[in-house]
Amino acid sequence: MYDDTHGRRRCFAEAARDDRPDLALLCLLIATEAQGKPGEETVDAAQMELDRLAGLLPALGRQAEPRRWAQALAELLGQRCGFHGSPADYRRLESSLLDEVLRRRRGLPILLSVVWIEVARRAGAPVYGVALPGHFVVGFGDPRGHHVLADPFEGGRVLSEDDASLLVAGATGAPLSPAMFSPAQPLEIVLRVLNNIRAWAAARPERSDVQLWAVELSLLLPTHPARLRYERAELLVERGDFARGARELEEYADVIAPVEPTVAESVRHQALAARAMLN
Q1: Which pTM was predicted?
Q2: Are the beta carbons of 143 and 127 closer than 8 angstroms?
Q3: pLDDT along the chain (279 residues), means of 10
Q4: Which whole-number Å values give the CA distances from 110 to 138, 152, 188, 241, 250, in the listed order?
């Protein structure tokens, strides 16, 4: 079912619209899109690896202290298995692909957090993702009450409130606020993963193919920024698909015209310029 682009996109769209979206599956479908090859075996193998890792955790139960869960995950994944990140991982596309993160045991904070979340969830831990600005981490316990934060990028190091404040201040210069501790929903995590891939590719003009498929997968999510349609249209024009790019620019202009008429007019001029490239 993942053997071609159409099949992979259909599976991704269906998984994204499930009543309870499967975070691991969606991240693995992103990986199969990146690899551009049949991916059912990849998906199954990665899911089995997550199951295997979960089976290595002690049976603590959901009522165990959040810190005990955080320490158990850090001991297993961070110490015994060696999952962590480094600055060099930001330069690799593989750091955003779940199957490669499971294989290399290296990745971006958000992908390492996905590993922590999925392994802990399978073992029955009260776990959730926390989308701190600029640095994704994992929470254990009750997000509205007693909880503990851990940083998988640092091998699962437990974070104090001061540690979290420093992470946020380093990324944004803003103070930490209680709203930042809210659990990140699966589709929010998936969109952030795709945003990271788009940013990686945007810094490498020769990889506009990667930026395009990351945008197209983002557009399959039930909720996404409208401006992604404009980004897709621009990419089509850049890649020489002038007719489709111009058509999508015009459609985007029609959508924003009621609220941003000046911007819409500028986009229509871009569409005209793209059509002129056909002559």
Answers
A1: 0.93
A2: no
A3: 75 95 96 82 93 92 87 97 95 96 97 98 95 92 89 94 82 76 94 97 95 97 93 95 95 94 95 89
A4: 9, 9, 11, 33, 35
How many residues appear in the chain?
279
| 32, β-bridge pairs | none
What is the Cα–Cα distance from 189 to 150, expressed in whole angstroms? 17
Q: How far is CA 180 from CA 117, 131, 167, 203, in A?
A: 18, 7, 12, 28
CA 19 to CA 16: how far, in whole Å?
A: 9
Residues sharing a CB contact under 8 Å with residue 191, sequence separation 6 or more, in sequence order: 218, 221, 224
Give the whole-angstrom CA distance, residue 113 versus residue 143: 16
| Amino acid found at 68 | R
Strand partners, 183: 130
C-alpha count within 13 angstroms, C-beta hemisphere, residue 254: 6
Are the C-beta atoms of 84 and 153 separated by less than 8 Å? yes
Residue whose entry in the numeric block shows the structure tokens 């210069």: 173
